[in-house]
Specification:
Structural class of chain A: alpha/beta
Strand order of the largest sheet of chain B: 1-2-3-4
CATH architecture of the largest domain in chain A: 3-Layer(aba) Sandwich
CATH superfamily of the largest domain in chain A: P-loop containing nucleotide triphosphate hydrolases
Number of domains of chain A: 2
Helix content of chain B: over 70%
CATH class of the largest domain in chain A: Alpha Beta
Strand content of chain A: 25-35%
Strand content of chain B: 5-15%
Distance between the termini of chain A: 36 Å
Oligomer: heterodimer
Order of helices and strands of chain A: EEEHEEHEHHHEHEHEEHH
Number of strands of chain A: 10
Helix content of chain A: 25-40%
Number of strands of chain B: 4
Largest sheet of chain B: 4 strands, mixed
Distance between the termini of chain B: 79 Å
Order of helices and strands of chain B: EEHEHEHHHHHHHHH
């Protein structure tokens, strides 16, 4: 039986000024899978992510999330979609003026009617899941880069979102933390049936968690398929990536 | 998401069905409160299709409330059981309450911090003066043209606003005093008042306050941003003294600019007074200026200009101090910028009071 995509990008074109960053991109992301977006630096991976989430307005093309076209959707409607999505930014993007606990509480306060007691339990569990159980009263400026990223992940999963986007989650992390993050991502996928979209270069991480690969090069999709298919493909760029492990 | 959850109680078993998730938990809590349960030994999860962390948090709450009866989950499928195990907060250590120091520790801490801050500020002052002096002889360690660039930013760019405000202040000062003086036929004394007040007080202090708000904040935020983005560390790693490279050009520029800005402010302020004297008090410009030069002494001019140097140095030193001592990211930069402006204005006024006491008491 053919799966219905949870996210469908059709003929997407993205530009910075006159420069074309993404050219006629067509990709489907399927539910309950970890999809990894790969490609060399500057190929448009983060731009694709941000265009899907309307952080950048696409120049043309369509993006469907949960079966709804979102590029022209009005803001309240799109916000209800965003409440079912979590995003881990490359540098964490925590709010510096409030504590880690308060950072994680933001989506819960804004999008649920849960009581303070239940929220507190959820926040403490999420912080514990990312091994930051003792850091809830600290401020982002008091955390290391890796800790910030983990705190940001706790915020991204606070609402148990249906879709989790991660922009280079392992970058700058030590191998052990990176591996435990991968484990957590797999756990989230399996337990909460989350759909996870990750931009990463880490080959070890890709091998551990990827179900499906989207390979971008110069703003175009060179390959889409399962990890198994990606390893066997004859497309030179993809083949080189998996052989050499870096671009 | 639309799947409703239902709660049923038959002593001592509580039975859930549907999805126990963030959307249904508030309703489940309301239903649970209506039931007024006194005894709970088992929680039946057979008909639970899905559970998320909000649902697990609710179950944790029940487990804690009825801990005397040691409730057990029954008939939970593997997926639900795994989710409960992963998201349960029952195994977490009890959250520690933040400790607050007692009154005496807070007082002691405050005093210690004051001395620590003072010592660190004095080191910075010594460093800045030393490198500013060395910088006059040896330009090594400074960027070429940086003093001129800073001079434009601190002096030329501020000239317009300083002149405008001085002119308005001169007008206001003359108008307010003229209204009183003309009642006694003492119109001519408006020239005395304008000359003395603009030269010794209003010119220097107005210029210093504008510079504190404009350049002081710019200095603090620039250095703080450099500190946050590790540019200061990068300079140190290139064996470049950050005070010499970043602060000294500003120090030299403000030292050159402030007497010129104060002079401009004073002259424009007096000109504002002249307009009122001519239009409102029917004095002639010649009489006004004769009186101005008659009452002004060299001491007034030197005190006015002399203290402006101290104001300028205080602005640079405080801006640099706060910039170098920034903590945190963007938030920290904003905080130290505000603190530096407040501290600069405070110390400018204190120095002004001290100079008045020394020279006019």
């Amino acid at each position: 039986m053919k799966k219905t995509p949870i996210i469908s990008v059709k003929n997407l074109v993205a530009k910075y000024g006159e420069k074309i960053i993404l050219e006629d991109v067509n990709v489907d992301i399927y539910p309950h899978e970890v999809t990894v977006i790969l490609g060399g630096s500057g190929c448009g991976k983060t731009t694709l992510l941000k265009n899907i989430l309307r952080l950048f307005q696409p120049y043309s093309g369509q993006v469907e999330i949960f079966g709804q076209e979102v590029t022209q959707m009005d803001e309240p409607e799109f916000n209800s979609i965003l409440s079912r999505i979590g995003m881990l930014f490359q540098n964490g993007a925590l709010l510096n003026s409030i504590s880690i606990f308060e950072n994680v509480s933001i989506p819960l306060e804004q999008h649920t009617k849960l009581s303070a007691e239940i929220m507190e339990k959820i926040i403490r569990v999420k912080l514990n899941l990312v091994n930051l159980g003792n850091a809830e009263n600290l401020f982002p400026s008091e955390l290391s880069g890796g800790m910030k990223k983990r705190a940001a992940l706790a915020r991204a999963i606070a609402l148990d979102p249906d879709i989790l986007f991660c922009d280079e989650p392992s970058a700058g992390l030590d191998p052990l933390t990176s591996a435990s993050l991968d484990e957590l991502i797999l756990k989230l996928k399996n337990l909460l049936k989350m759909t996870i979209v990750i931009v990463t270069h880490e080959l070890a991480s890709i091998h551990r968690i990827a179900d499906r690969i989207i390979f971008l090069d110069n703003g175009k999709v060179l390959f889409t398929g399962t990890l198994k298919e990606a390893k066997k493909t004859q497309i030179p760029e993809v083949e080189t990536f998996f052989r050499v492990g870096k671009f | 998401m639309d799947n409703k959850a239902v709660l049923e109680y038959q002593n001592p078993v509580l039975t859930f069905s549907g999805n126990i998730d963030k959307f249904n938990v508030p309703g489940l809590i309301a239903d649970y409160q209506k039931l007024k349960i006194l005894r709970l030994e088992r929680i039946d999860l057979q008909d639970v299709e899905q559970i998320d962390s909000a649902g697990v948090a609710f179950l944790d709450k029940l487990m804690l409330e009825f801990s005397d009866f040691k409730p057990q989950f029954i008939h939970a499928n593997e997926s639900v059981r795994n989710t409960i195990n992963t998201f349960s907060s029952l195994q977490l250590p009890v959250a520690e309450k933040l400790k607050t120091d007692n009154f005496f520790i807070q007082i002691g801490g405050g005093i210690y911090k004051f001395f620590e801050t003072s010592a660190s500020a004095l080191y910075l002052v010594a460093d800045i003066f030393y490198w500013a002096f060395v910088g006059l002889i040896n330009k090594k360690g400074q960027r070429k043209g940086s003093v001129i660039q800073q001079g434009v930013l601190i002096g030329v760019d501020a000239l317009g606003i300083i002149c405008l405000l001085s002119f308005i202040l001169g007008l206001i000062l003359a108008l307010q005093s003229a209204a009183q003086l003309r009642q006694f036929g003492a119109n001519i004394f408006v020239a005395d008042l304008m000359a003395i007040s603009m030269v010794t007080e209003m010119g220097p202090i107005l210029t210093a306050i504008i510079l504190a708000g404009r350049s002081g904040s710019a200095i603090a935020s620039e250095i703080a941003t450099m500190q946050v983005t590790e540019e200061i560390d990068a300079l140190k790693m290139m064996a470049i003294n950050p005070i010499r490279y970043v602060v000294v050009p500003k120090f030299h520029a403000i030292t050159i600019c402030i007497p010129l800005l104060v002079t401009a402010s004073t002259l424009i302020g007096i000109f504002g007074g002249l307009i009122i004297a001519v239009t409102y008090l029917d004095l002639s410009a010649v009489v006004f200026f004769n009186r101005v030069f008659e009452v002004l002494t060299l001491k007034d001019v030197l005190v006015g200009l002399g203290k402006s140097f101290f104001f300028a140095w205080v602005i640079v030193i405080i801006g640099s101090y706060y910039g170098f001592h920034v903590k945190g990211g963007a938030e920290g930069v904003g905080k130290v910028t505000t603190q530096s402006v407040v501290a600069s204005i405070f110390w400018v006024i204190i120095l002004d009071a001290i100079s008045s006491l020394i020279f006019y008491f």
